[in-house]
Amino acid sequence: MPDAGYPQHDFPKRLCRLDLWLNPAFDQIIGKEADIALSVLPARGDDARTLAGLKTAHAYHVSAAKDELPRPWFVSAELIAQCPDLVCVSSGGAGYDTVDVAACTAAGIAVVNQAGGNAASVAEHTFALLLAVQRRVVESHNRLRHDTGFTREDLMGHEIHGTTIGLVGIGQIGSRVARIAQGFGMRVIAHDPLLDADTIRRRGAEPVPLPDLLAQADVVSLHCPLDASTRGLIDARAFAAMKPDAVFVSTARGGIHDEAALHDALRGGHLRGAGLDVWQQEPPPRDAPLLALPNVIATFHTAGVTHEARRNVAQSSANQLVMMLRGERPPQLVNPEVWPVAAARIAKLK
């Protein structure tokens, strides 16, 4: 069982996490390591205790959910300054919005994410949203429950077979989306500035510049990280550049698309619909304008929240933390350039 704190420093390696929900696989894996002490600290209600635990930690599993994790426990420059022993941080998801990677690199702290751990779930959810929009699933369900006197033709939707899907980003999730799209008989195009054209082709898509993707795609689906280069990437000009009647889907991160601009494009009839799993504020307020539109299908950042994905992410995080605390290079380093420095710091723990 994990300790509630660090009552003694007999363990050479100290790992902490907060008491936010985490699949039990994490604690089970760490619990098998005789030289690692796991401390579970309160996310809320006892900041002094939590800070005291973090100040002596060598490793920190941090939630990737920016609107669930209290701001003081983000891995910020301010927190790092108070945690001189911290050598490795693991984000509990593919994203790492709660980690200041540059500050970690400057401090010699290795950062890992769990890219791929929830890829199957997010890719599946992409098509759940897309099909719900195109086939008017929610509208049909609601009318069957609450309405009478309508015909099947009143609920007529559209096939996705034979259409073009444009993927903005074709990493582990985007690659899975591409394969599923091919199974539906869709043409797949993609834009990813981090990959060369041959790599994009190997991942199942035709490489195109972003303006061409917007102009050609019947479905635009986001699968890129949120960073300085992508924040606000899909703005009013981008929505205007999309084909009339196109569908917009995002299971990436809130902030990549402009919610007000999307609302205008949908309300004005330029776009057919949108499937949204991610929001600038999560959950969005109940009076969010997008939620009032009948052609928007909305979920609460649950694309990667399945039993299987949460287990995979917990296992991945625990295994990578164990590897790092053993001095072994982990597979999902976000800041690989820091590893020689971090490894040297970790070696001193033995």
UniProtKB/TrEMBL annotation:
Keywords (A to Z) from UniProt: NAD, Oxidoreductase, Pyruvate
UniProt superkingdom: Bacteria
Residues of the D-isomer specific 2-hydroxyacid dehydrogenase NAD-binding domain: 127-303
Coiled coil stretches, renumbered: none
The keyword Oxidoreductase belongs to this UniProt entry's keyword annotation: yes
The enzyme's E.C. designation: 1.1.1.81
Family to which this protein belongs: Belongs to the D-isomer specific 2-hydroxyacid dehydrogenase family.
Name recorded for this polypeptide: Glyoxylate/hydroxypyruvate reductase B
Organism in which the protein naturally occurs: Achromobacter kerstersii
